[in-house]
Amino acid sequence: MFQYFVRRLLALVPVIFIISVFVFLFVHALPGDPARVLAGENATQADVEAMRRALNLDRSLPVQYVEFVRNLVTLDLGTSLRTGEPVWDMMMRAFPATFWLSVASLAWSVVFGLIAGVISARRRDSFADHSAMVLAVSGISIPPFWLGLLLMQVFSVQLGWFGTSGFDDWSDLVLPSITLGAGVAAVMARFTRSAMVDVIREDYVRTARAKGLRERVVVWKHTLRNALIPVVTMAGLQFGFLLGGSIVIERVFRWPGLGSMLIEAINYRDFVVVQAELMLFSLEFLLINLAVDLLYGIINPAIRYR
Amino acid sequence: MTPTATPDTATPGTATSETRRTRGPVGEFWRRLRQRRVALAAMLILLAIYLFAFAAPYVLPYGPNDFDYLNTLQGPSATHWAGTDEFGRDIFARLMNGAKLSMFIGFTSVGIGAAFGIVAGLLAGFYGGWIDSITMRMSDVLFAFPGVLLAIGIVAILGPGLSNVIIAVAIFSLPAFARIVRSGTLALKESTYVEAARAAGASDMVIMGRHILPGTLSAVIVYFTMRIGTSILTATSLSFLGLGVEPSIAEWGAMLSTGRDYMLAGEWHLTVFPGLAIFITVLCFNLLGDGLRDALDPKLEQT
Which pLDDT score, from 0 to 100, does residue B50 have? Predict the structure, then answer.
């Protein structure tokens, strides 16, 4: 297991390297002179030169890159071009909102998706199965921002049960997490169903039935447990996609998280913040994938020796 | 990855070998698709939407950008089927314009992604070695980003606008096509007929273009269809975030974005209809993709 862990970790190194180069080059990919772009439209020549020095843009590319990595490692992400606040502080302030939104969404959607998938697989081609799968394909196709607006229209504007923006109270989590989790629940239901359908045909399931075990034990213990291996992988991957989806949902609910921060930074051309956020999002995604891989190795010992 | 028209996959007894041969890949494809009623219905709905969208300028009394300050924020009625917006523009006419835009964005972005992906996948699978390593590492990195984030990053660099949205969506469609074609190429490269073509002196280009590429096309068609739904969702998301087309353009995501504030003031029709349009279109593309997959390439179901 330890060897497997080390191997997975080492495989991450080149990917992190390439991503860091991309994110580093991001500022240089801006059309025109980056220092001039970053200094703003009304900047004097002296301002531009000061900006160039402040961001090390007057040094050679390799030197700049080494400096970039050193700053990353020491968590010195620079200061916002707009407010002058350290980017790290801004991120730490926005992080809890995004974190709780993701966790709440993942929690309800995985549980709900699993149950729906199992019921569908158990009663294949029944009315329940067909309705669950119609709901699932709708969940994948519905624009998440529209679902959010619909929920807001009904539950906030008409019924007045919830607020329409911000994260001031735990009840504010309800609508955004339903919105963000809908797509995940749909994917989980479809995926669990197909994994269960595969496993349900296996010999050991037949043996379990032949032993006279109760149906509930056969389904929830013998079948689901084995079907869970691919399902856990999928759940972990979905967490990564929640990160991407949260950017849009945060915008709908004016959620004070990392996604809103990113969009605001892009709108104000605050590229120091954008750069830091892109790096954070990619690292988060990679680490989640790593965690999923490791979990997979724990559940299924065969994969460690590949 | 089986070629589209392998005779052994047709149901025995439904046709003689002669008729099967004259039917060709397209006929075979059509025959199998006809058996999927949901997919077929989805395709007809899409056709209807797009036909109407192209006919709209000649049929509807209002254009998508006709201002009417005497009739702003009207609810749906016989004259304005989906009501009017804050400038008195007819929302239905704007929706139809949005349909054309969504189709344009969906097909061009996925088309560009597919074209580059197919070439990269063919070269990587056929030549292997360093070309393969570089192509696959690049696609690993592109896969390492959630799609929306990647698109946002690209638009952040290039700036908002229609063509930049298309580029962003194309780039994030590219790696999947490269992988699909690469794995098909790897399998077909070793087949007897490719060996025979090589022995007959065919050049690499001819082998790749005429003997390997057609064999990977069924998987590409399936994925292309499924991808269009995702692309429309991503493009409308970008517009909703204010990173896509100009907010004044009649595009579904942009309409939703401006509609949000009016919705909070009680004007529900500004958000319900554009969202419904996206939902129906994406749903139909996904159902069509599901049907094509079942009909053409059952192996894809596992991925």
Answer: 92
Q: Does domain B41-62+80-300 correspond to CATH entry 1.10.3720.10?
A: yes
Closest chain A residue to B303, measured at CA: A191
Q: How many angstroms separate the first and last alpha carbons of chain B?
A: 13
Helical H segments across chain A, by residue range: 2-29, 34-39, 45-54, 61-73, 87-122, 127-141, 144-151, 174-200, 203-210, 215-217, 224-252, 258-267, 271-299
Cβ–Cβ contact A153 with B under 8 A: yes
Task: Flag whether pLDDT at B115 surpasses 90.
Answer: yes
- For the segment B91-113, the average pLDDT, to the nearest whole number, is 92
A244 contacts B147? CB cut-off 8 A: yes
Is CATH 1.10.3720.10 the classification given to domain A96-268?
yes
Burial of B289 (0-12, 13-18, 19+ CB in 10 A): buried
CB contact under 8 A, B282 and A30: no
| Confidence at B299, pLDDT banded by 50, 70, 90 | low
Looking at A281-285, A293-297, B41-45, which range is the least confident one?
A293-297
Q: Give chain A positions within 8 Å (CB) of B264.
A: 152, 157, 164
pLDDT category at B23 given cuts 50, 70, 90 is: low
Q: Which residue of B has its CA nearest to A26?
A: B157
**Cα A81 from chain centre:** 27
Q: Which residues contact A82 (CB under 8 A, 6 or more apart)?
A: A265, A268, A270, A273
Chain segment A40-60, per-residue pLDDT in tens: 777 788 888 887 777 777 778
Q: Do A253 and A152 meet the contact criterion of CB atoms below 8 Å apart?
A: yes
A287 — contact with chain B (CB < 8 Å)? no
pTM score = 0.82
pLDDT digits (tens, 9 = 90+) for A184-234: 899 889 888 888 888 877 888 888 888 888 888 888 877 777 777 777 777
The whole-angstrom separation of Cα B233 and Cα B286 is: 11
CA atoms B80, B85, B91, B94: torsion sign:
positive
Instruction: Round to whole Å and give the CA distance between A203 and A185.
Output: 29
Q: Do B146 and A266 touch (CB under 8 A)?
A: no
Cβ within 8 Å of B, A 6-35: 14-15, 18-19, 22, 26, 29-31
For the record, the structure tokens of A78 come out as 């620079």
Q: How far is A212 from chain B (nearest CA, A)?
A: 32
Q: What is the CA radius of gyration of chain A?
A: 24
Chain B residues whose CB is inside 8 A of the A29 CB are 157
Give per-residue pLDDT as tens, B148-168. 778 888 888 888 888 888 998
Interface check for A90 against chain B (CB to CB < 8 A): the answer is: no
Picking from A157, A248, A281, the nearest residue to B240 by CB comes out as A248
**A25: nearest CA in chain B?**
B157
What are the pLDDT digits (tens) for B234-246? Answer: 899 999 988 888 8
How much is the ipTM here? 0.80
Distance in angstroms (rounded) separating the CA atoms of residues A226 and B137: 32
